[in-house]
Amino acid sequence: MYMPVFELSSFVDNSVSKALPLNVRLDALRLMLEALIGINRLWLRSNRIPGLYQYAPAYKMKVRPFGLDTWQDIPRTILLGSGDCKDFACWRVAELREARVPDVSPRIKVKEVNGLTVYHIQVRADLQVEDPSAILGMPPSVSEQEAKSLIRGQGGVDSIIQAQQTGRWWR
Question: Which pTM does this prediction carry?
Answer without folding.
Answer: 0.79
